[in-house]
Amino acid sequence: MDYARLLDKERANPYYLKGVKIPRAIRITADLGEALATQLVVLAVPSQYLRGVLTKGAPFYRRSVPVVSAVKGIEPGTLLRMSQVIAQVWHCRSLAVLSGPTIASEVVRGIPSTAVVAGKGRALREHVQQFFMSPAFRVYTNSDVIGVELGGSCKNVIAIACGISDGLGFGTNTKAAIVARGLSEMARLGEVMGASSRTFRGISGLGDLVTTCFNRSSRNHFLGEEIGRGKSLKEVLGRMKMSVEGVPTAKAAYLLGKRHGVGLPITDEIYHVLFKGRSPATAVSRLMGRERKAE
Questions:
Q1: Which is more confident, 83 or 15?
Q2: Helix crossing, 246-260 with 145-167: angle to 10°?
Q3: Which site in 2, 134, 194, 240 is 20 to 30 Å from 16, CA atoms measured?
């Protein structure tokens, strides 16, 4: 039995949202033609698979249908944001992004949560806002697509750093510093790429960053914590079923920083720990030993 048929029969996802019943009103299908025969397309796939899914779905997608991207990441190689990838493949007329501190296991339990929808047209933003709003899910609008996407992507790298900190046995002082300086990095990169620094102080920036950095069930935090305890990246990823967006994003953000001439010291160290064999202890020493500067 294929996965879609299993989900449809059990009305539950035993791997990712165990114990949560999927309402009968939701139709489950693995047929892209059927899935895209709708009035609003919501894309929520791992970033590394997005272009492939878009390419397969292109023959079925109608350009007049609005698209909402909930995909977080930066495409390796091209260094494009997810909305740029979508626009490049589908040439859609209306495209918005949805991001924020929305851990799925909490949202489905009806725990009060917030998110931000960003798009170029006010009518589109308000349409998506109304579509997703519920008594336990509040959605704000924002015109800063670049800032909202970068905040939702780069916060995963900082969450890996916080996980490493916990794995090394450090405390709240260290994590607070990582979050504060990590937010500063995100804003610097965002500004040079055309985003507003104000966006990074909002829900899709600081809000999402705090959630991912302090929630021990976060995949990015978990990966970082295991690395801080001495595990290798390959070893940790081999034990995880779900994708960890912060891993490819660390490389992409590192390269974006070099491209734009922006200093991203935490991101740089995470890149070298993940991909160049640098030890977490050495990374900490390098960060703490940087030359003196004003905040």
A1: 83
A2: 120
A3: 134
